Amino acid sequence: MPDNPTPGNHGANSYDVAVLGGGSFGTAMAKVLGENGHVVHFWMRDEAQAEEIRRTRINRRYMPAVTLQGDIQPTTDLAEAVRKAEIVLVAIPSKAFRSVIREHSSEFRDGQIVVSLTKGIEEHGFKLMSEILLEELPRCRSGVLSGPNLAGEIVNRELTATVIAAKDPDVRRTVQELLGCEYFRVYANVDIYGVELAGALKNIYAIVAGLASALNMGENAKAMLITRGLAEMSRFAVSLGANPMTFMGLAGVGDLIATCTSSKSRNFRVGYAIGKGQKLEEAVQELGQVAEGIYTLKLVREKSEAIGIYMPLVRGLYEILYESASINAVINSLMMAVQNSDVEFILPRTITQ
Ligand SMILES: NC(=O)C1=CN([C@@H]2O[C@H](COP(=O)(O)OP(=O)(O)OC[C@H]3O[C@@H](n4cnc5c(N)ncnc54)[C@H](OP(=O)(O)O)[C@@H]3O)[C@@H](O)[C@H]2O)C=CC1
Ligand SMILES: O=C(CO)COP(=O)(O)O
């Protein structure tokens, strides 16, 4: 989309919104909100970064080519950002999500809307971010936002759609009104767990797709990986209570396509680097940003084995990343596994492991 100096708001209310997390996605959402005419209390932990954004309107570390427009107020005072906000969006990596929220939980008000933008799972207890919000902020109204939302495209005003999942219809409507504009479209869902799990799980398959790309696999192979990834992630999520139809939507197949076909995805890039022979630690260090999939992979492998869910791609990727298995040996064992059914919701699988 060409750059357009006029705000993208539908002309509705202006809100005070806190965006917690000054990385790529926090910046992308702050930009949409600023252009939509909202007041953005943009929290990050680094005062030098906040001061630089105040002065230059540029988040040099995470989005060096993007100038922020509108009333965006960078701050390192989380309590004040939350106190001023009607709605809080949280874009903090899963490893730090609970600690940041817990430390400031007393600042949140009863009924305040708090939405997680984070696509990950907490290490201890396999908790999703919506569960952390419920535990830490039981009197707030929560939701999750997930979908094919590469931050680098959103900041360029490229056409994008996302999903807001919340039980409370007012939360869904408010977030649609808040973020929706001519380049950003917000669809609603009530299956919070499904939307959130889809966003976290697809990162694993983005790593697999990056690996396949590094190995110059053909289009048939890429399609097989994406589709079997979808089968595997929906099998797992349904066993935990998600609705399988959510995986047909933007948060499921939509995000899988975006991240499994593009080197703009950091998870894809980690997979690509490993496929080219780099060690996992080197690949992560070189990336310099969060790739949630490498942590999610460990947790999902452990959980799937504990509850007996067949996830051959998860198992194979885990062996490559964490057990130094040969990529070719893993591919061979996946291809030579027992033949099975295509869509198990139509023809049940007969083999369970
Ligand atoms: N980027 C994208 O395209 C999308 C990302 N997401 C999700 O959004 C979440 C955030 O990702 P993203 O913004 O891309 O990540 P980045 O790696 O770009 O940025 C991470 C941000 O989190 C901050 N951070 C890290 N640890 C802490 C902590 N302990 N306390 C406070 N802040 C901390 C970093 O601060 P500092 O710089 O000071 O280290 C930085 O601002 C992830 O779960 C990701 O999956 C969702 C959709 C799209
Ligand atoms: O979730 C994303 C796009 O929808 C971003 O993916 P990465 O974290 O792999 O960059």
From TrEMBL:
Domain Glycerol-3-phosphate dehydrogenase NAD-dependent N-terminal: 17-170
Residues that coordinate or bind NADPH: S24, F25, R45, Y62, K119, A151, R266, V290, E292
Domain Glycerol-3-phosphate dehydrogenase NAD-dependent C-terminal: 191-331
Pfam families in the cross-refs: NAD_Gly3P_dh_C (PF07479), NAD_Gly3P_dh_N (PF01210)
Record pathway: Membrane lipid metabolism; glycerophospholipid metabolism
Enzyme class label: oxidoreductase
An annotated GO cellular component: cytosol
UniProt catalytic activity: sn-glycerol 3-phosphate + NADP(+) = dihydroxyacetone phosphate + NADPH + H(+); sn-glycerol 3-phosphate + NAD(+) = dihydroxyacetone phosphate + NADH + H(+)
Positions annotated to bind sn-glycerol 3-phosphate: K119, G147, K202, D255, S265, R266, N267
Gene Ontology MF term list: glycerol-3-phosphate dehydrogenase (NAD+) activity; glycerol-3-phosphate dehydrogenase (NADP+) activity; NAD binding
Catalytic machinery residues: K202
Domain of life of the native organism: Bacteria
Localization terms from the record: Cytoplasm
EC number in record: 1.1.1.94
Keyword terms, alphabetized: Cytoplasm, Lipid biosynthesis, Lipid metabolism, NAD, NADP, Nucleotide-binding, Oxidoreductase, Phospholipid biosynthesis, Phospholipid metabolism
UniProt cross-references to InterPro entries, sorted A to Z: 6-PGluconate_DH-like_C_sf, 6PGD_dom2, G3P_DH_NAD-dep, G3P_DH_NAD-dep_C, G3P_DH_NAD-dep_N, NAD(P)-bd_dom_sf
UniProt main location, coarse: cytoplasm
BP GO terms, sorted: carbohydrate metabolic process; glycerol-3-phosphate biosynthetic process; glycerol-3-phosphate catabolic process; glycerophospholipid biosynthetic process
Entry annotated with the keyword Oxidoreductase: yes
Family listed: Belongs to the NAD-dependent glycerol-3-phosphate dehydrogenase family.
Job description of the protein: Catalyzes the reduction of the glycolytic intermediate dihydroxyacetone phosphate (DHAP) to sn-glycerol 3-phosphate (G3P), the key precursor for phospholipid synthesis.
The protein, known as: Glycerol-3-phosphate dehydrogenase [NAD(P)+]
Gene behind this protein: gpsA
